[in-house]
């Protein structure tokens, strides 16, 4: 048996759901209002958190401070869609003494000062250390900027320095534009210019290649032959465990390394014979391309933005043709990419 060994995760996130109020063009996990809610169960959440306790490492500044790639975050989808469940899971993490916990949100819920402060105070009371507020021109298509601003302002009152704005430079730019309400992405580009995208962290994977690919240079598939995804699949920081229990490596949406509710089993090693797609990815992108061709994959004439684009496109083809590969999970991820 050939196994891929994995290190213990030192930071990560737990998905409450893939359902979201937005369908952002850049979403790495293809979240959307079209997903079924399928909330993580309290039983599964406790099982996952219990196994992560003792492994997750806190911020270098202390266990009660937060950082994007430190500690444990609660995410989705949009976790505030089920606020009562969010409170319970945050409380579980606090009971287990998991350090540097925070919630990630698009702020759709921040409709007035009273509601916003009430929710954030409740989260702090059950043990949450901080909040990460997502700000980008893709969320702005769905969430009015004044809601984002309100959550930032009140978040700083409640969590002080444990209020992260991702990305703060984008928020400052949007404030200078004096935007009210939402703004279509095309209008954002008219104001900011396409060059502005080079100044924000925008990863060419997930939904981005399908919704934003026309803005970037493309390359033929063979450009990425000889490269593997071994490092990405094995990394121990910013992993995710989703509401179905899938152990998702890093930002690799739609890939499951196993059942995150049985973390010890995963850490004993991934049986590559049992997961041919993973085997291909740790070998060479050409191996994945060849596997895709067995299921009718045809190379895109216009090319690919990155090896991640090639990877997700081949996986999407395979997932649409067969359900024999359990590592291609959840299946809905591939349905909502485009």
Topology:
Elements: E1 3-4, E2 12-15, H1 42-52, E3 72-75, H2 83-95, E4 101-105, H3 113-125, E5 130-134, H4 145-159, E6 163-166, H5 168-176, H6 185-192, H7 208-211, H8 230-234, E7 239-241, E8 247-248, H9 263-267, E9 270-271, H10 276-283, H11 285-293, H12 307-321, H13 331-335
Parallel strand pairs: 2-3, 2-7, 3-4, 4-5, 5-6
Antiparallel strand pairs: 1-9, 7-8
Helix pairs in contact: 1-2, 3-4, 10-11, 11-12
Descriptive overview:
With 338 residues, the protein is α/β, with parallel strands linked by helices. The protein is 36% helix and 9% strand. It is built from 13 helices and nine strands. The chain has helices at 42-52, 83-95, 113-125, 145-159, 168-176, 185-192, 208-211, 230-234, 263-267, 276-283, 285-293, 307-321, 331-335, and strands at 3-4, 12-15, 72-75, 101-105, 130-134, 163-166, 239-241, 247-248, 270-271. A seven-stranded mixed sheet has the order 6-5-4-3-2-7-8. The model has no long low-confidence stretch (mean pLDDT 97).
């Amino acid at each position: 048996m050939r196994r891929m060994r994995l290190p213990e995760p030192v930071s990560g996130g737990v998905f409450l759901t893939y359902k979201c109020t937005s369908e952002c063009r850049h979403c790495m996990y293809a979240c959307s209002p079209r997903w079924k809610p399928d909330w993580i169960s309290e039983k599964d959440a406790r099982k996952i958190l219990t196994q992560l306790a003792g492994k997750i490492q806190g911020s270098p500044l202390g266990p009660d401070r937060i950082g994007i790639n430190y500690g444990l975050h609660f995410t989705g989808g949009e976790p505030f869609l089920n606020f009562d469940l969010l409170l319970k899971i945050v409380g579980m993490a606090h009971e287990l003494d998991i350090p540097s916990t925070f919630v990630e949100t698009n702020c759709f819920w921040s409709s007035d000062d009273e509601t916003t402060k009430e929710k954030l105070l409740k989260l702090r009371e059950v043990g949450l250390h901080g909040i990460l507020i997502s700000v980008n021109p893709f969320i702005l298509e769905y969430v009015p900027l004044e809601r984002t601003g309100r959550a930032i302002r009140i978040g700083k009152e409640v969590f002080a320095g444990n209020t992260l704005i991702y990305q703060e430079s984008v928020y400052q730019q949007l404030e200078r534009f004096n935007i009210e309400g939402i703004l279509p992405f095309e209008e954002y580009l008219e104001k900011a210019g396409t060059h502005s995208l080079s100044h924000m962290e925008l990863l060419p994977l997930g939904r981005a290649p399908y919704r934003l690919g026309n803005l970037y240079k493309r390359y033929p598939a063979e450009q990425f032959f000889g490269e593997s995804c071994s490092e990405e699949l094995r990394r121990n920081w910013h992993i995710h465990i989703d509401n179905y229990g899938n152990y998702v490596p890093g930002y690799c949406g739609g890939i499951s390394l196993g059942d995150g509710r049985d973390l010890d089993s995963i850490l004993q090693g991934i049986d590559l014979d049992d997961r041919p797609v993973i085997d291909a990815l740790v070998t060479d992108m050409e191996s994945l391309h060849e596997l895709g061709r067995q299921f009718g994959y045809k190379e895109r004439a216009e090319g690919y933005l990155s090896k991640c684009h090639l990877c997700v496109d081949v996986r999407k083809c395979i997932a649409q043709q067969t359900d024999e590969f359990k590592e291609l999970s959840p299946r809905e991820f591939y349905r909502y990419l485009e």
